[in-house]
Write a structure and sequence with these properties.
The complex is a heterodimer of chains A (368) and B (282).
Chain A (H helix, E strand, L loop, with lengths): L6 H7 L4 H10 L4 H48 L1 H12 L13 H38 L13 H32 L1 H14 L4 H15 L8 H26 L3 H9 L4 H39 L4 H11 L4 H30 L3 H4 L1
Helix pairs in contact in A: 2-3, 3-4, 5-13, 6-7, 6-9, 6-11, 8-9, 8-11, 9-11, 11-12, 11-13, 12-13
Chain B lengths: L3 E10 L6 E11 L4 E6 L5 H9 L6 E6 L2 E2 L7 E4 L11 H12 L5 H14 L15 H14 L4 E5 L7 H18 L2 E6 L2 H7 L2 E5 L11 E2 L8 H4 L3 H28 L10 H4 L2
Parallel strand pairs in B: 3-8, 3-9, 6-7, 7-8
Antiparallel strand pairs in B: 1-2, 1-4, 4-5, 9-10
Helix pairs in contact in B: 2-3, 2-4, 3-4, 4-5
The chains are: A mainly alpha (368), B alpha/beta (282).
Bound molecules: adenosine-5'-diphosphate (ADP) and magnesium ion (MG).
Subcellular location (chain A): Cell membrane
InterPro entries (chain A): MetI-like (IPR000515), MetI-like_sf (IPR035906)
Membrane topology (chain A): Multi-pass membrane protein
Chain lengths: 368, 282
Amino acid sequence: MKQSITLGKVTKFMGLGFLSTLKDLFTGKLEKEDFINFLRKVVVPLASVLLFIGLWHMGSQSLYNIEAEFKIEKALNDQGPAAAEAMRECIASGDVSCKPNTLPSPAQVWDSYKSLLRDHNIISADKAAFIEKTAALNEKRIAEGKDAITYTGRPSFVDQIFRSLKTVFAGFLLALVIAVPLGIFIGLSPTLKSSFNWFIQIFKPVSPVVWYLLVFMIVKTLLIDSNEDSSFTISFISVGLCSMWATLVNTAMGVSSVDKDYINVAKVLKLGPFQKIFKVVLPSSLPLIFTGLKITLSVAWMVLIAIELLAQSPGLGLFVWEEFQNGANDSNAKIIVAMFVIGIIGFLLDRLMLTIQNWVSFDKTDAI
Amino acid sequence: MAYLELNNIYKTYGQDEHATEVLSNINLSIYEGEFVAIVGFTGSGKTTLVNLINGLLEPTSGEVLFKGEPVQGTSHERGVIFQNYSLLPWLTVGQNVFMAVKEAFPKKSKNELNAIVAEYVEMVSLTPAINKRPKELSGGMRQRVAVARALAMKPEMIIMDEPLGALDALTRGNLQDEILNIWGKEKRTALLITNDVDEGIYMADRIIPLRPGPNATLGPEFKIDIERPRDKTEMNDNANFKKTRNAIIEYLMDIGNERKLEASEEFILPDLSPKDFVNQFK
Ligand SMILES: Nc1ncnc2c1ncn2[C@@H]1O[C@H](COP(=O)(O)OP(=O)(O)O)[C@@H](O)[C@H]1O
Ligand SMILES: [Mg+2]
């Protein structure tokens, strides 16, 4: 029996099953009974998105009105009717100087999104031009043993996204490298398990802010001689330490609860300790380890924003913080754009892990 | 001297007030080249007995001697076919067998090992499925993989815990013949646990019933004096077969009745009669 990989299978595998329903709709393959399904899986979610945007629009509109009302009232009380009238006109004209500062409407957020992209294109072009201009000079400098000149301009929004992803992956890798081996040792030995238990129970609930401060204290001292920017190091280590607990606990649990039948096989075949771990214990606990890794990645992404903000490490968190401090007329809209980007990337990361997890796990009930 | 010897074996699970003595005073001798079957009801302690012999469990008291030496842990000399197949689901058929062969013959080259794997997978007619994973196989096929895995290690003694229990009659018959073939050809010693008296008579030299637990102990042995190779259809007309079969079944039924008797003595139902519901609604 040959297995073919179809679009349907792949999308279902990745938890994006509604895509194939959409495809069926357009290719006319939709059966009657599928129609209900289509309503439930496509139309209703779409309607809820529209409803969400509608409510948001109305909400922002009324917040805008409250804020405008208040400004006019204030002008009236402080400076008299003429000033109030001027303020009313100023607000109506949409002038930046007197614009009410509140929750931005969906349209404003969309505009900000486009302006952020435009900004990115400008910066990219600028960067490319800079690299071209300095290429010859840099070659010479490298030949002379000097450092190359690098672009030090402002990072664009897209650059910030990639910086954040880099930090999160570095943190995730750190968590993986610490938590999986440690989890295996803890799971294998009841002694280690009881000696580490207090440690896990106490450190697991510690908040990201505290982890950041702890890492900051240590890394600052360790890197005291180097004048490199340690913010990236500090933030990825904090992210890793915050997020590794789910993997640690799940790995230990998976390893200590391997099916007795498999352990008996290992004993009867007289597998050595390494063979036993790599051929029996690990494969059988992979599904649980991956569940842990999935949680770790989503926690890492969630705490990243707060940690970047504290560490002043470039990325989405810092972007949000700077926009908030900066208080420009479209700052609020940009913050909301960042919020959506953070949410969507988090969702995609989750899907990515789910896909890998489906890939490596086997159906336990089928196998025995 | 017996090849495998069990002397005054007792096995208790649990401790203190939770302790149950599953096996009591088990004595058994198996001689080299013999094929012995143990029959017993489910839950009587057959798997426990098997695990004591293959070294997965230690007796609470008494000793298990294999070739005169006390059994300490598992050994490649004693191959095991588990009741529930126990294949590793993340490995293919070939990989499952290869893993065992590699442990049994650490000095052989990869090619030699692969040849052994191919030979035994072919023996259980699974060559077309060699690259499949257990979940893609039927129960019968999985059990054949388990048989191939145990036999490919070429153990001196092979211990089978209800190896064919979950199979349909046809597959069962085929596998019985395959196991008998290998046993006859390579003159190994075999211990078969089964709940099927006919299977025991067809395959074994001796049948020993295990009385129901707790405190299960072995009953009297029944010798099967039917010449090999045996033929199933001919055997049905064999007077000796009929006699032995009836004797064993009678013995097992007697134990069953004893058990029922004990049960009825222990639990006396309260003397109640159902209420007359019909009258209530009138
Ligand atoms: N690890 C264990 N701990 C406690 N009781 C057990 C354990 N294994 C088996 N038993 C009990 O011992 C009895 C015999 O079990 P088992 O040897 O599996 O019987 P069989 O293989 O004949 O069906 C059963 O009552 C079972 O509940
Ligand atoms: Mg059993």
